[in-house]
């Protein structure tokens, strides 16, 4: 689900870290494009064969409703899920946004979803954590209800959730409305990349955000800092922090879905290219 309501990218589990982990840890590919197999004294066998004998996936309680384009983050023993779109794939209206904020204990398959203090619902919102608090950033809302003429409303929210008090606190808003973005925490700073400012009836003329943003959590008085972006417009991305750098993966550009990987080094304020994401065809991408 993207900002415009098209079911292109699904959930926004801002576990860009998940995408990065797959990107960094995936086994090398053979010429046929399949993972190489590990060899043992008994011959060649799939690397996961013995593991699958001893490990079983545990299913948790399903979400109370079908959901796409939500924000999600893990803090402590819990997975937190913020809002999202729970209506028809092509539906556009504020009543189709999930007006919920929930969590579930990740190590207990019998755990139930817990309802938490709500915040303004939206889709394509980023949710990140610094290890103590959760931060909700941007997202798309609507000024219309379903069945009415579409009126998009990208937002400027930057809000902190206190797990102990079950309470939201408003922080310095984004410099401009932004949705279809992602965010990552590196050190004590939050980085925001990608997205656009979608307002009104159509996405056709929506301005893209070419920059990235940084917010120093230890010096909030400085507000948001603007820095140069990767050199191309993109949204519906995954953003992750790893080994002192910020990784921007995939997304949707002005010409379609992207396989690009761009790496930002805060120490030098510079970008470099990473290996493209693998795909089965020249037209496939990642969003």
Automatic annotation (TrEMBL):
Biased composition (Polar residues): 31-51
Domain of life: Bacteria
One Pfam family cited in the UniProt record for this chain: Kelch_1
Region (Disordered) residue spans: 31-58
Chain ranges passing through the membrane: none
Gene3D superfamilies in the cross-refs: Kelch-type beta propeller (2.120.10.80)
Entry keywords, A to Z: Kelch repeat, Repeat, Signal
Signal peptide: 1-32
PANTHER family: KELCH PROTEIN, RING FINGER DOMAIN AND KELCH REPEAT-CONTAINING PROTEIN DDB_G0271372
UniProt name for this protein: N-acetylneuraminate epimerase
Lineage: Bacteria, Pseudomonadati, Planctomycetota, Planctomycetia, Planctomycetales
């Amino acid at each position: 689900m993207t900002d415009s309501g098209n079911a292109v990218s699904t959930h926004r589990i801002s576990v860009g870290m998940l995408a990065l982990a797959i990107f960094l840890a995936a086994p090398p590919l053979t010429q046929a494009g399949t993972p190489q197999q590990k060899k043992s004294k008994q011959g060649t066998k799939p690397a996961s064969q013995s593991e699958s004998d001893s490990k079983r996936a545990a299913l948790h309680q399903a979400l109370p409703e079908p959901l796409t384009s939500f924000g999600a983050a893990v803090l402590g023993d819990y997975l937190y899920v913020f809002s999202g779109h729970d209506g028809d794939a092509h539906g556009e209206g504020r009543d189709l946004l999930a007006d919920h904020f929930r969590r579930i204990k990740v190590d207990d398959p019998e755990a139930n979803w817990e309802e938490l203090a709500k915040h303004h619902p939206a889709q394509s919102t980023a949710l990140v954590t610094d290890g103590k608090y959760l931060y909700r950033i941007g997202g798309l809302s609507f000024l219309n209800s379903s069945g009415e003429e579409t009126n998009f409303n990208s937002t400027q929210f930057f809000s902190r959730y206190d797990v102990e008090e079950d309470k939201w606190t408003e922080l310095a808003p984004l410099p401009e409305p932004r949705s279809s973005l992602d965010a990552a925490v590196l050190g004590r700073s939050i980085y925001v990349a990608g997205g656009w400012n979608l307002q009104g009836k159509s996405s056709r003329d929506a301005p893209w955000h070419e920059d990235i943003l940084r917010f120093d959590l230890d010096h909030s008085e400085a507000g948001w800092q603007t820095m140069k972006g990767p050199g191309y417009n993109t949204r519906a991305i995954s953003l992750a922090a790893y080994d002192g750098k910020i990784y921007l993966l995939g997304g949707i550009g002005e010409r379609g879905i992207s396989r690009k990987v761009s790496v930002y080094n805060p120490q030098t304020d510079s970008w470099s290219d990473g290996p493209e994401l693998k795909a089965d065809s020249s037209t496939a991408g990642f969003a």
